[in-house]
Specification:
Chain A: One of its GO terms (cellular component) is plasma membrane. The complex is a heterodimer of chains A (89) and B (200). With 89 residues, chain A is an all-alpha fold. Helix content of chain A is 81%, strand content 0%. The longest helix of chain A is centred in the N-terminal third of the chain and has 26 residues, at 2-27. In chain B, helix 2 (25-51) packs parallel to helix 7 (174-199). Classes of the chains: A mainly alpha (89), B mainly alpha (200).
């Protein structure tokens, strides 16, 4: 059991690292991307990936009933998608 | 030793494989309701920005992006401490879980101080909630989120106290999971709020 716990903690740590790196990338994106459309698209894609990490790893919904996992995951896909459409269309 | 075997027969993996929703069902409905309210705010902000792009662009330049970045890192780190506190609680180590929750709360304090510093810095420049549409929405959305952070911190202290006094165990952990899930929701909302208001 302790081995599994260590694995869970390790997974949470990797997720934390991914979240921090993605946050830094999204803040400094303008240094690398000139096009606003691409910049907004990438920044919102990063939001979705970060949301998935929080939902699946921190909230532990990866193993939850599919309906609840899908409800939460659809939130971090649909909301950024709508925002992206408003900005870019 | 394979993960699915242990001296206690039932492992955390077995529990996870049963596809059980962590925490109370009522908390998840509450989380859905909260997410819906914030979704309306986020979409409303994007629509208002689209209609007043110059005003919003100028407004964003007056915000302290580094403060927003520090707050993002603080909330993500706080959420991480809560996630490992739950893992520790599943090992029946209530006191250690309580310490981790207090650590998560202390990290969240960074967010509170930075947010208040941001507000006062804007007030000193003569910027307030009535300055223009951008700042009305900025203060409305971030203050609403701040209230959720404060509520989340109180919930975390409550579960830390209960964990410390041994009221949770590996099999009686629903309240702990509910509090942790609420805190992760607060983090999830900021993950969308930060790029929307400060970055894009």
């Amino acid at each position: 059991m302790s081995y599994f716990m260590n694995k869970s903690t390790k997974l949470a740590f990797i997720s934390w690292l991914v979240l921090i790196v993605l946050t830094l990338i999204s803040v400094y994106l303008t240094l690398f991307i000139d096009s606003r459309a691409i910049y907004v698209g990438v920044a919102l894609l990063i939001v979705s990936i970060k949301g998935q990490q929080i939902i699946d790893i921190f909230m532990e919904l990866k193993h939850a009933p599919k309906l609840w996992r899908m409800l939460l995951l659809s939130y971090v896909i649909v909301v950024p998608l709508i925002i992206g459409l408003i900005y870019l269309v | 030793m394979p993960e699915s075997f242990s001296s206690n027969n039932i492992t955390r993996e077995d529990i996870l494989n049963k596809h059980v929703l962590p925490g109370d069902l009522a908390m998840w409905f509450f989380i859905l309701a909260e997410l819906t309210v914030f979704a309306i705010f986020f979409i409303g902000f994007a629509i208002a920005e689209q209609q007043n792009s110059i005003l919003f662009s100028e407004g964003k330049k007056q915000l302290h992006q580094t403060a927003g970045l520090v707050n993002t890192i603080a909330l993500i780190t706080s959420s991480f401490f809560v996630a490992i506190a739950l893992n520790v609680m599943h090992k029946n180590k209530g006191k250690r879980a309580a310490y981790l929750i207090v650590l998560a709360d202390a990290t969240a304090l960074i967010y509170i101080f930075v947010k208040l510093w941001e507000y006062f810095a804007l007030f000193e420049q003569g910027i307030g909630i009535e300055t223009n549409t951008f700042f009305t929405l900025y203060f409305l959305i971030t203050m609403f989120h701040l209230m959720h952070v404060l509520l989340g911190m109180v919930i975390l202290l409550f579960i830390a106290k209960k964990a410390f006094s041994g009221e949770y165990s590996d099999t009686k952990i629903s309240g702990f999971e509910s509090g942790a899930s609420y805190w992760h929701m607060v983090d999830l909302l900021w993950i969308i709020l930060f790029p929307l208001i400060y970055v894009i």
